[in-house]
Design goal:
This is Claudin. It is a single chain. With 211 residues, the protein is of the alpha+beta class. It has a domain of 134 residues: Butyryl-CoA Dehydrogenase, subunit A, domain 3. It is 53% helix and 10% strand. It has a five-stranded antiparallel beta sheet with strand order 4-3-2-1-5. The longest helix has 38 residues. The radius of gyration is 29 Å and the shape is elongated.
Amino acid sequence: MASGGLQLLGFVLAFLGWIGIIISTAMPQWKMASYAGDNIVTAQALYEGLWMSCAMQSTGQIQCKVYDSLLKLESSLQATRALMVAAILLGLVAVFVAVTGMKCMKCMEDDQVKKMRMAVLGGVIFIISGLAALVATSWYGNRVARAFYDPFTPVNTRFEFGSALFIGWAAASLALLGGAFLCCSCPRRETSYPPTRGYPKNAPSTGKDYV
């Protein structure tokens, strides 16, 4: 029962992490314009994401523009896109594999060993998905931080971390944690020892065997 609860907890955490990765990938707030300068006064907030850039006016109106050409984008942005999409696809595969191996499902009930292996395999794929998302968000965040502290970057073109990055970091952590729980939910095999053999009891001596 304990392993079944740990398995369910791991799947829920990993699934929530996968949903968070999808949300983070779709959000345009991967980085936001910094207003750290003293003389910066603006009536709009600028955001940039993996797929579009947006500007939010002081009235609350948001205008977004999708990037025109894939070939004009930076190679680092293309790599970040690829890692996040790969994390989403791997998470989708992990969901189906892990559901098949869940104890509460009736799939593969006739072979419990294969069922446990499917759950562990789903956990491993979830871990790989979380690592891909963690690498992508950390790499992007590192680029934002380096550009921010670069003295040659103009003050009015500096960006800070957006909310999508924080969601991506949290989602990757959930996917890693949930995948680890799924891998640890496999119950240990108990070592079976052969039954101890009792020694035959000696028949009581009557004294007739001696001459």
